[in-house]
UniProtKB/TrEMBL annotation:
Residues 26-52 are annotated as: Disordered. This is IKBP1 protein. GO terms for biological process: immune response; positive regulation of canonical NF-kappaB signal transduction. Signal peptide: none annotated. It holds the Pfam family SIMPL. It comes from the Eukaryota. GO terms for cellular component: cytoplasm; nucleus. It is found in: Cytoplasm; Nucleus. Its main location: cytoplasm. Belongs to the IRAK1BP1 family. It comes from Galbula dea.
Amino acid sequence: MALPAPPPARVFAELIPAQAPTSVPIPVSAGRGGPPAPPGREVHVSGSAELSAGPDRARVSVRLGSRKEAAGAARSSVTRRLEYIAQSARQRGVPAEDMTVMEDFSRVENAYHMEAEVCIVFSDFGKMQDVCNLLTEKLGTSVTISPPHFYHTPEAAATLRRQVCVAAVGNTRCKAQEVCRLFGQALGKPLLIREEETKEWGGHLDSHLSTSPESLTLQERIQNATAYASCRVFAVFEIKGKENRRNKLL
């Protein structure tokens, strides 16, 4: 049986000097890295990177209500609990601007009904657990605490995109440097760096996770909110010439 044809080779480095231009070149003195390389000697490489970032914010909703025959009694019952919730959050370092209160007051048949919802945004998930545990312990069934919703701020998402691009460029430079060392050459300055592809996605894909959002654990919720990003770049570097022996030993 005939052997399969070998895959075509991919040429990604050009070490043969290009044809000299018609004009007379200006002589350049040799630096520490050896004599200057002839024009046109370049190495073309591509590199990629993939990074992930967990959510940096969590939003928790606390709902409470009261139904009384007197309007003042219904309002007072809710107000006392609202003050306790706000005080508990502030004592644990949550700024006032990260708490939003919505109130609804209505009359139902012969009684007054007041409902309120407090939305608290946490940047420290440990503090979030402390506050939720305290409210559950002290207020019990008089409040309903929703499961935390984890998400990324726009600043955190932008940081992830920037970091994955920089990591891809760094990997590309390392690859070009190793190629040059393989041939005893020194890597020069970058001539071109182009971002070719970026991808972003999120969510945990493990099959063992429950499909019901209410049954997810805290760690599973964080995993589901983790953001991923990948980047691929293409770069062209100059080949300076012979690699300095001293730098090679270092």
